[in-house]
Amino acid sequence: MIKELKRRTKNFVRKVASFIQKAGKAQIHQVMLNNQYRMMKKILDPSEMPSLKEVGFKVYSEFEEDGILLYIFAVIGTTNKRVVEMCAGEGIECMATNLIVNHGWEGLLFDGDKKQVEAGIDFFTSHPLTFYHPPFFKHAWITKENVNELIRGNGFVGEIDLLSLDIDGNDYYIMEAIHVVKPRVIICETHNMIPSELALTIPYKSDFDFKSGNLHRDFLGVSLLGMQKLLKKKGYRLIGGHRHGYNAIFMLNEICKDYFPEVSIESVHDNPYTKLWAQTRWKELKDLPWVEI
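Now predict its structure.
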């Protein structure tokens, strides 16, 4: 009886996930899938639960991160449904939007491009699910010197459920500086062209802009090992990444280790995209003035 229930449950999840991939914005199906994951947690052993590689789908995220985040928070639960995202673009393609639009999260979003912020504000204030209470969407150039005041000044302090960081530059230094919020889950972009065994980042420049005046278009960000070393000090473990190996996911050590054990950097980098780019592009980058962490 239990085996048959488990089989039917897994089949149901596969069918719903397939539907979401085809008709991604159907809110009701995301709610159904969220509740199904919660039920699965009650009847399945942690080893029988889906892996992060099996739950992804795209609604507003860059790739399949919307599905991964839905699964993670279905399993670990939420505290206050608050998310901070740095470098959210127009908000139409970022990590926070699906949670805000389809699941009622409260968001604080930043971007350094004023026009993109204006477009994002227009998107959320005109959306039928967010126009009553849109996320805070702020134009700001984020540095390690101002990041905490920017977050605190917009009313976000203490525990939050999610932090998303992808600024294509001083990511390491910004992450290192943040202390006014304590996210339960962090998703951040790392540099997968840098070999797995190297902990490297760029030198800090508060006005760094990869679009202009850069030594190389790919001289930016931080390696996954570099980010892992930093976040280990802050009490987080690496639990996975997206299919292309550069958007990495970390979780507080005290949360749900049975369901989300620590994984290796090599497992995150074990995908065709990362292998190709590391083999073909690292030789162009290796002699640039990287900072060892």
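The first strand starts at residue 82 and ends at 86.
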